[in-house]
Amino acid sequence: MKQIILSLMILSICSVSAQKKVNYEYNNFIDLAGTAYTVATVVHLNSKLFTKTKSGLLFINTETGESEETEFPEGARVQEVKQIKIDSLKINLVLVLACTVDANGKKGLDWSDPIQVFIFSPSGKEKHQLTEDNFSASSWRVNEYTGTLLVSGFFDNNKNNKKDKDENSEILLYDLQTLQLKNKI
Are 123 and 59 in contact (CB under 8 A)? Predict the structure, then answer.
């Protein structure tokens, strides 16, 4: 009986140690039109608990096989990744909506934290955060004639992660050629 139990214990230890540990997962591939690049969202996982620890993006040059990874802070969530390509204005960018700031200081990001707008070059080597940390973006649209990005949302001035009476909805207008704020409405 002792030999059977010992054999089962040794077998279970060997099978557990032979299992592959999951460190990250790639998903949501987005081809960038007019370029050799494809973007993949990356989720880093805790191999023991299979919980998400980080999010990021992997920009892959499909001609050379070279890649550029961008990581967001621990607990961040990538909400949306879209290419903005306007040939007439020579604009070719990647827009990313992501929750990356623990605005209420509750030791971790949650669904009530603000969503920021980021712009990347197609290679992923250039990154620019458009919206401020305390601005919570809710929707966006590009005017292709002027190359203007319109972002609606609100500034959470008291950092309580909700829209209060004195925190009005705003529309921010960004020039996609200079990546500068043009106006607030």
Answer: yes
